[in-house]
Amino acid sequence: MAGNPSPTRYELTPPTVNTNTNNSVRSLFASAIVLSDLLMVIIAFGLGYVARMTLPLFDIPDAVPPFEDYLPTLTLHLAMTILLMYASRLYHQRRTFSRIDVFRTIAGAITVASMLVYGMQDFIFKNTVLEVDYPRGMFFYVWIFSVLLVFFGRESLRRLQWELRRRGIGRDNLLIIGAGQLARDLVQSITDHPELGYHVVGIVNSPDRPKAKKMGVPFLGLYDDVPEIIDRFGVEQVIIAIPEARRAEIAELVTLCQRGRVDIKVYPDLFSYMIGDLNVDDLGGTPLLTVRDIALRGWKLSAKRALDLFGSFFGLVFLSPFMLLTAVLIRWESRGPIFYTQERMGLDGRPFPMIKFRSMRQDAEAQGPGWTKENDPRVTRIGKFMRKTNWDEIPQLINVLLGHMSLVGPRPERAVWVQQFKATIPRYMERHREKAGMTGWAQVNGLRGDTSIAERTSYDLWYVENWSLWLDIKIIIRTVWQTISRRSPNAY
Length: 492
Description:
This protein is of the alpha/beta class.
């Protein structure tokens, strides 16, 4: 890289994001999270004290010690909660996270902290002036209120932080190295999601690669200019978005970026991506690297099938009255069948009849198969509601019960599309190593309908190779929440 000719200089405006302001905002929010946790635990403890005397879940005592007598126990509760939350990395601020995962981690940390306090307070304060009875009823109420209120406090702060970032407050100056398709995708993603808190100051590129096309951000120079650009623009984050770069080139770029407290992220090349979860096996004394492992096998298959049977059976039982009402409305609006059965490709590429409520006119495919698009004139009035709320998919519980599908998995496609996709999308058929699902990792991330098949495939493959029972439960919860809140992306 040394000796590259200097690029054409541009008169560039100073960055719109101030580094000192960013540091102040980050410090403020880091402190606010701790203070919020402390405040919520104090409120939860107070509510637990009151609930013990008023709620009939447990025996209501005749005489209760004054609240002041519980202050030592409260202090111990605060200390243990903060310690366990810190050990669970809940004070490590991440830009993107799952609320479900955060809630689970908070619940776990507070549960352990509460149990430790319940056991320790009697041991520490026994036979002292601080000794007080800490009954099971109060312990239970304090635990429940702590979990709910701490999560509520953090969610409120998160929404405040996102709103400030949308207004340009608390964003980090970001430099992107590279000017290919990946860099354009990153710029577009950051533009579409200002709540992530990035301000792209510009991009730099290699002199032996084509100059960047118009991307909505300025071209700042070449690799050798990176240190100067970082200092001039107060860059706090660098993303090296050159998946085709040589290792030596990446190493030199990382060296150029190591200035001050700059965070450096590198997009992995294809091989690094494939071996992201390496396992080492032994074959007769010969070590072998497993670069691709199938997560679903053995007892995990049985666990997933048990979840499918439980969910589909109770879903059909409890939703049957609403399904009957839907059938009446479909028949009332238009003549034709209530259900729409279509052949889809499932496990190992085997076809099966997928059942849905009919949401389109009978002649919807008179001109041949096609993707459903927003405001599609073929969709009926009741069909618009069903597709927006995913209600047209409910009959697939029958497919799940029969074993054709799973509650969670890659969404099945028609044979005509599968033949096209497998010829153009690398590893496309590997998504058929597992049963198709009513919902999936790609769908809850907005990849449904007329969206990128390549990107959808990458999400499906990640799910296949990283399956866990908790992941399935999380996807189901997100699907239900997106449906109830009418926030299902690209649902039409």
